[in-house]
Every structure is written in C-alpha cells, then in structure tokens.
C-alpha cells in the first residue's frame, strides 16, 4: 500500500523539490554577491528548511533529536552513518549554528541547481575519489578553515550510502586528517535511522509514511585517543542506535 501511494505522491515530491532548488539557485547567487558568506549561509539554511519540508508531501516525518549541549566556540566534526541523499537537509538546518561543511564527492559540485552552487561556494571539501592527492588537499583546506573560522564539518565515513540501512565499516582517513590538523576539534556522532526507507524502491517510486530520525549522540573528546580509537567509538555508538 505504501508503494502504491509512492506512485501517486512521488511526482508531487519531485515537483516541489525541483521548484525549490531552481528558485533558490539565483537567490543564492544574489545573497552571496550582496551579503557575502553570512548572506549566502542564511539563504542555504532557509533552502534546506524548505527541502526537508518536501518529505512531508510523501507522508514521511522528520524527527531531529539533539539533547547535547554542544559548544559553538570550537569546531566540531559530525560523524554520521549515511543512508540516502535525503540525510543532508536536516543536518544542515538543525545544526545550522555550527556552520557545518560537507566532505562531498566532486561530481555533486556541478549540474544540480542550488546544491552544486552551495558545494562550490559554501566551503565544502569536494573530493575526487580517483585522485588521492586532490582529496587530501581539499580536506586540508577545509581543516584550515575549521581552525581559522571556527567552522564545523560533516563526514560520512562509510564512504557510500548503506542502501539497506545496515552500517558499513567506517573509514579512518578523512577523520584522521582533520584530527591531525585541527587540534581542538570535537567529535560528535549522529545516528540516522530509516532515511534509506525513503528510497528503498529506488528513484521511483519513493516510499511513503516513513518515520525518519536523526539523533545527535554524546560527544567524543579525541584528546589522548588515536584516530582509530576515535572512529571505533563513534561507529560503536551509532550502531547501538540504528534499528
């Protein structure tokens, strides 16, 4: 029955999603030109609020749980499992005060209205997985901004989406680079539950009436720990929360 509703509601979702990213593309450009970084960021925050609202057109719900008193005077590396492309708007919007930037595939930095513009101009690290030198350079650039501008970052250490919701082993590489360069970074795991259900049938139809949750877990202070120990702790905490 939910799949049947998906055939009916998915066109509505895609129409809304497409209109939003198309309309916000020139608005982002204007905000960046007139308001610089602050103006552009505010525009991106609003954009992602609208994008997560489109989930409700499918009868899906978003619950963001954050019981942690996270600091705003030091950079944070948010470490999350990855289930679908729809993981991202709630992270950007609900954690907007932390100025989080994504470590993203370079392919996403072109061709997608609004989203590609933000990845190119919003401070993301757009990495080419086929070019290790370029990837390291991008992550180092982001790490330097985290130090100098007190930005935070989001990383999906599985490296790719878990299409059935089962967590894949976490990679240490990107996290280790940031830990090495940003001495005062705080590690904060985030458990994402059930967003994979939204795309369980693929691009079309999208699934409907799914309860999705994003939960911010207790921070990990990396001081005195090796990168492998930090990643192991983050992975273990997330696995405990995934249904």
Any overview of this molecule?
44% of the residues lie in helices and 16% in strands. By secondary structure, it is α/β, with parallel strands linked by helices. Helix 3 links the parallel strand 3 (100-105) and strand 4 (125-127). It has helices at residues 2-53, 88-94, 115-121, 132-149, 173-181, 227-241; strands spanning 61-66, 76-80, 100-105, 125-127, 152-155, 186-193, 211-216.
Low-confidence stretches: none
- Output the number of helix runs: 6
Share of residues in strands: 15-25%
Q: Could you tell me the mean pLDDT?
A: 93
Helix amount:
40-55%
**Distance between the ends:** 22 Å
Number of strands: 7
Shape label: globular
Which structural class is indicated by helix and strand composition?
A: alpha/beta
Give the gist of this structure.
This protein is of the alpha/beta class and about 240 residues long.
List the helices and strands and how they pair.
Blueprint (H helix, E strand, L loop, with lengths): L1 H52 L7 E6 L9 E5 L7 H7 L5 E6 L9 H7 L3 E3 L4 H18 L2 E4 L17 H9 L4 E8 L17 E6 L10 H15 L2
Parallel strand pairs: 1-7, 2-5, 2-6, 3-4, 3-5
Antiparallel strand pairs: 6-7
């Amino acid at each position: 029955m939910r799949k049947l509703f998906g055939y009916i509601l998915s066109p509505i979702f895609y129409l809304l999603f497409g209109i939003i990213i198309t309309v916000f593309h020139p608005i982002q450009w204007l905000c960046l030109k007139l308001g610089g970084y602050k103006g552009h960021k505010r525009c991106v925050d609003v954009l992602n609020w609208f994008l997560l609202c489109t989930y409700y057109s499918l009868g899906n719900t978003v619950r963001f749980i954050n019981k942690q008193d996270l600091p705003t005077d030091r950079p944070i590396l948010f470490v999350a499992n990855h289930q679908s492309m729809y993981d991202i708007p709630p992270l950007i919007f609900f954690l907007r005060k932390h100025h989080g930037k994504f470590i993203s595939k370079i392919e996403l930095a072109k061709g997608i209205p609004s989203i590609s513009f933000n990845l190119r101009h919003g401070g993301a690290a757009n990495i080419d997985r086929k070019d290790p030198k370029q990837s390291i350079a991008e992550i180092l650039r982001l790490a330097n901004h985290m130090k100098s501008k007190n930005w935070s970052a989001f990383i999906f250490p599985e490296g790719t989406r878990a299409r059935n919701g089962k967590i894949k082993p976490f990679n240490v590489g990107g996290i280790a680079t940031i830990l090495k360069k940003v001495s005062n970074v705080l590690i904060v795991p985030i458990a994402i539950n059930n967003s994979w259900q939204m795309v369980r049938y693929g691009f079309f139809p999208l699934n409907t009436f799914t309860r999705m949750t994003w939960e911010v877990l207790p921070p990990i202070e990396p001081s005195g720990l090796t990168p492998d120990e930090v990643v192991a702790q983050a992975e273990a905490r997330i696995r405990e929360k995934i249904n």
